[in-house]
Amino acid sequence: MPTCVAFGCNNKQFSGCGKTFHRFPHSDAARMEQWVQNVRRKKWQPSKKSVLCSEHFKEACFDHTGQTVRLRESAVPTLFNFPKCIQKTPKPPRKDPAPRQIKPEPTPAPHPDQEEGSSSCTTGDAVVQKEHVYSMSDSPIILKRKLDVALNALESTKKKLKYTQQKSRRLEEKIESLKRLLIN
Known about the structure:
Elements: E1 21-23, H1 29-39, E2 51-53, E3 62-63, E4 70-71, E5 120-123, E6 126-129, H2 140-183
Antiparallel strand pairs: 1-2, 3-4, 5-6
């Protein structure tokens, strides 16, 4: 009993099912390629007995002139119920980027202690470049890793502080209990 090979279609051929089943056009290579593309099954080639049911063809694809319903020569299956993850949706065209307007930045006045021609100013031990103070030297991935390491170190330090406070409290309670024993 042939079964439709389309994704998610469980129609089987039996008498009185009300559907017609159609074999892949192995003799017409161009049409065969269109059928296989439209079925969208990876690394799959239909056998001589592979069929598609009539639900996957538009009504205009059928020839109802005789006693039996036949497909027209140019018929290609186009009606499928694919899940959203493999449906082809046309993407809207991208907009042209807006023209950039570059505004010249005013050059800062040199610091009185700075020599002329020097491109950086020193503040204590730190040397800061004038031009790209706002830029980050590391990529976002590296910065995220550094943040994760810092957060883990913070958690570890918090735990150590908590254990140390508990230990200190216990020792203070022990000292108080020993003092009470000595007084009694």
